[in-house]
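This week, work through this protein record:
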Amino acid sequence: MTKETFALKGTIIWSESLTKLSIHENAYLICENGICAGVFPELPDKFAGIPCRDTGNSIIIPGFTDLHLHAPQYSFRSIGMDLELLEWLDTLAFPEESKYADMEYAKKAYSIFAEDLKQSATTRASIFATLHVPATVQLMKLLEETGVHALVGKVNMDRNGAPSLQEKDADTSAAATRQWVEETLTGFQNVKPILTPRFTPSCSDELMKQLGQIQKDYHLPVQSHLSENLGEIAWVKELCPNTSFYGEAYDQFGLFGGEDCPTIMAHCVHCPEEEIELMKKRGVYIAHCSQSNSNLSSGIAPIRRYLEEGLHIGLGSDIAGGTSLSIFRAMSDAIQTSKLRWRLLDDSLKPLTVEEVFYMATAGGGSFFGKVGCFTPGYEFDAVILDDSTLLHPQPLSPKQRLERLIYLSDDRHIKGKYVSGVKLF
């Protein structure tokens, strides 16, 4: 996998802003040593003679970012969707994740996941593993081979877990995490560690305190869950009576954003005003996982409100609360559930648009990884080629109509090419 200078030719679409698509038909998208050099109607003289992949009338878009998914849960996606969150965790998620103590099982399951992620339109991802260090390292090795860029977290759990899926105590969990960070911080080109307290109910105050120190020592990003389910929120209040809202349970240990602690919080379905204000102040990223929130009966996050507040928002598949790795599906679900919220709950929050969810899937979530998710010169060259020529239609469609159709159909079979940071995956 080497970085070169080359061009892609086709119908090029990316987000100029949250509400505006930049569309260029029969144009050239140029990659210069892994970095986007721009989009041009003709090849500039400077790039005359460089290799060019002519995709015909295919659509070329920035790669998608999946801000939240659980790799070990991929094996039971689409099962147990009649359960709510806490029962679903106890019945399915925890028993399955305990199997990753077996390295043979972990390699088999993670190999399937890694290959399917490679074939998707996702070029960047923030991923939960399990608490097992060897299996987590194995997942990182498999992802490294795919060429996808990922943040992977060894999960921390020292309370309220199944006997087979709970670390002995805070010291044991923190020591294993520190060892894992030392082993993986510089060992990969495409994959990096991210601190991952599963969620407040699974981590004691002592463990959170030690994770906060590890974060400071290594300047690591953090990922976890926030205000997903009403029962979960009530439980956090019982466990952390010294806090006034869920986010404070992380913030009191320095694990809730800020300049030196980039943080992703998944879901954020039922955030009170104080929590929204703190997320905005700390620059916390919200991973909106609409399909999972529907499947587990958690609710519909007020994404329009978050956008109006200027919060950072990306999309997550949330495998296996969500059933599909496709961020196309995450986009269409986000639009559809926002329409239900608008019609049934709060008509002051207008539904999301195609432009907005496309931005969240690309530049919105991608910005957590740096200059990612856009074809503006200077951004990392992540690109996906979509061939919709088999979707016959009796009349011509505009590029935006074609893109909207691909979003709602959510069929990854139209993906015909993928580049990550200028490296061709296929």
